[in-house]
Structures are given as C-alpha cells and as structure tokens.
Specification:
By secondary structure, the protein is of the alpha+beta class. 48% of the residues lie in helices and 14% in strands. It has helices spanning 30-43, 53-67, 87-100, 102-121, 124-136, 249-285, 297-327, 335-368, 378-385, 396-406, and strands at residues 141-144, 160-164, 167-178, 185-191, 201-207, 213-218, 227-238, 242-243, 287-288, 291-292.
C-alpha cells in the first residue's frame, strides 16, 4: 500500500479501498457509496503543489469545481446535485479529502460553510447570484463570525452595522477568517442592536473590493491555510446585502454551524485514518531488535487503540449526519425537540472525533520516533493539521457545554 511522503505536494498512489467499508453502513445509501468511491478515485489522480497555501487553495477550488464535487455544497436549484444540503455527502467529502490533503478538505469545506447561510436564508436573488458560482468553483466563499474578543462568546462581538438611508454602514474587525484575502465574498455577522446581546446580531453579504473593507492582513498559523483579519471602516453596503432577518444573525450562524459541525468531525476522522495507515506502513518496514516494529505486541496494542478511537468518533459522526438528513423533515418529529437532539448529536460528533483524532495522530507520530517530527513527513504535517479542528466552529469546551446543557432539566 504505497503512501505519499511529501506534505507539500498532493501525491498519487494511496489505496483507500481497504478503509472504505464504513460507507456500506446503514447510515448511507447507494448514492453515498458511489460518491465515496468516485471521490476517492478522483483524489488518487490529483496533484497540486501545496508549497504556497493561497495559490493551492485556489487551485483546489478550481479543480473541485471543474470535477463537480462542489455541487454537493449547494442545493440542486442552484447547480447542486441534491435538492438540499445533504450532511452525509458533506461528511463523505470531507473525510475522503482529508485523507489526502488538509488543504483540499479546507477548500471544499469553506465553499459549503461560506455559502451555507445563503442557502438557508438568502433571498432568491442572493441565491441566484452566489450559489451557482460557488458550485462551479468560480467564486470563493468565506464565513466571518469570530473576533479577537468574541470567539466562543459570539454575543460579545463589537463589529457594528448601522442603518443608513440607502443601506448599512459597517465598522469593526473580524479575526481568524478562513479564506480571508482570497474570498470573492464574505458572510459577515455584525451587532445591529448592542442592547440585545446575541439577539441583536444580523448577517450581511460583503463582496471583495467593497470600499471600506480591508482583507489583506494575513495571519500565520501552525498549519498553513489562508487566514486573515477583516477591517471595516465606514464600509457602506446596499440594502440588498442583508442576509436573513434583521437581528436574526445569531440563529442563522448557529443553524449554519450545526449543519457543518459533523463535517468537521469527518475531516478529523479522515486525518486519523491517514495517520493509522502511515503508522501501519512505517511499522511494517521498520526493523528493531531483529524483527519488524509491527510485530511487537505493544505496537499492535497501540494500533488497536487507534482504530477503536477512530471508529467510535466515526459512528457518532455518521449518526449525526444521518439524523439531520432523514429525520429533520419527518412529520412525526416535533421540530424544536428534534433540533435540540440534533444539536447535541452534532456536538458529540465534533467533540469525540476531533479529540480522538488528536490522540490517534499523536500515537502514530510516537511510533515513528524521531522520523515523526521531521519536517516533510506526512505524519508531521498531520500533527499540525489536526490541532485547529478542536478549536474552530466551536471549541471542544463549547461542545461539552452544549452536551451538558442537554442533560440539565429545564
């Protein structure tokens, strides 16, 4: 089972067929299995130089759009494959892509997250303007919620949007914005009634190049990907830029994150599966004390632990995605009760999958010994790639609070 070795180049040769049996679980149907097999086959033929992350991400969006995979990020009415966003398809895409490349996964994920709020509550004209371009890879999307003093505590955001005679005026800063400086449009959340806290937030669509917006301050993080600060200085927007209802931005942001949290979990699972494959190959070839490293019982026990951690997170992830796809529109479901159940399931999947993946990758790196921390090794890049998943779209501690709240009597 040959594996690529360079973290900077998306290489060919990995055979994932032996690790794809999970797509045959009852959570998925035949169309999902076909999608997984098709995407895996496509990934095995791709080659993108990832030395420069911004250029690589644009190339990935182009490639994913040209091949039709970004059609899973939008509804069929606007160029997508399915009638509505399908959580299981998002999970399949992100788990498969992250096995091969964290930047490929990132590029796909941001097309979905960045346009997700438009899919949910955009006006027909907004949907017609942006979603077809997203599905073709002709427009890069971004989701701007976090601020330096308002990450987990969204209600503390200080970026404001004031009504004017002909639209809105934005002032403030957004922090850690993925695709910042690269995106063609941003979904930006602002305080529109500070006295109302989280109930006084609204969302807006801001096109790149809008006067008063600066997206060129790039941020450098542990695992390179496009990240910037957004600055708004009397940034004027037309009335048509309001996304969703006035002061309905917080609910819209949470609805969007609820859809994509299981996909974050899936990305973590994909990275963990890759780490286990790397460990298997390394241990099978590494000679120690006149035998292979993989022949030691301690090594076998470690890899057994890795697989158990992967599969437990995977089952929670597939369950959450299945719940949303199959039960959300069920007439027998009480909508509010189901939403609470799904929010908890999504939080469980993200918490367990990302935390477990961190453990798996750490164990896999430990098996590599000194080679594991050598720059250029896949396991070294995985060690850096996985860390952010425990933070973005709701840190692990936030997921614990969501889960704990679901167990607290009203």
């Amino acid at each position: 089972m040959p594996l690529p070795t360079s973290k900077n180049q998306f290489s060919v040769g990995i055979d994932m067929q032996t690790t794809m049996d999970h797509w045959h679980l009852p959570f998925f149907d035949r169309a999902h299995v076909d999608m997984a097999q098709g995407l895996n086959a496509w990934c095995s033929t791709q080659k993108v130089d990832e030395t420069h992350d911004r250029l690589a991400c644009r190339e990935w969006v182009d490639a994913l759009g040209h091949a039709g995979w970004l059609k899973y990020c939008v509804p069929k009415a606007f160029g997508g494959v399915l009638d509505q966003l399908d959580s299981r398809s998002l999970v399949i895409a992100r788990e498969t892509l992250s096995v091969y490349s964290a930047l490929a996964d990132f590029s796909f994920a941001m097309q979905g997250l960045g346009s997700g709020a438009i899919t949910l509550e955009g006006t027909p004209s907004q949907q017609e303007k942006y979603l077809p371009l997203v599905s073709q890879g002709k427009a890069i999307a971004a989701f701007a919620l976090s601020e330096e003093g308002a990450g987990s505590d969204v209600s503390s955001m200080s970026t404001t949007a004031l009504k004017t005679e002909d639209g809105f005026r934005l002032n403030g800063e957004k922090m850690w914005i993925s695709n910042g400086g690269l995106a063609d449009f941003y979904v930006v959340f602002c305080k529109t009634d500070p006295a109302l806290g989280s109930r006084g937030i609204s969302a807006f669509i801001v096109d790149k190049g809008t006067p008063g917006m600066d997206d060129q301050e790039h941020l450098h993080v542990i695992s390179p990907h496009p990240l910037s600060k957004l600055k708004f200085n009397n940034c004027h927007l037309p009335q048509a830029s309001l996304l969703g209802s006035w002061n309905g931005g917080f609910k819209l942001a949470m609805k969007t994150l609820d859809i994509f949290r299981p996909s974050v979990a899936a990305a973590a699972i994909g990275m963990a599966r890759r780490a286990l494959l790397e460990a298997q190959q390394f241990a099978s070839n590494r000679q120690m004390f006149k035998q292979r490293l993989i022949d030691f019982q301690m090594t076998q026990a470690s890899m057994g632990n890795m697989l158990s951690l992967i599969e437990s997170g995977a089952l929670l992830t597939y369950k959450a995605a299945w719940m949303r796809d199959t039960q959300l529109a069920s007439p027998s479901q009480d909508a509010k009760s189901f939403q609470q159940q799904y929010t908890t399931a999504a939080a469980l999947s993200k918490l367990v999958a990302t935390e477990n993946a961190q453990k798996v990758i750490d164990m896999a790196l430990q098996l590599h010994g000194g080679r594991g921390v050598e720059v250029g090794q896949k396991i070294e890049s995985l060690y850096r790639d996985i860390r952010a998943l425990r933070i973005y779209e709701g840190a692990s501690e936030v997921q614990q609070l969501i889960i704990g709240r679901s167990l607290t009597p009203a």
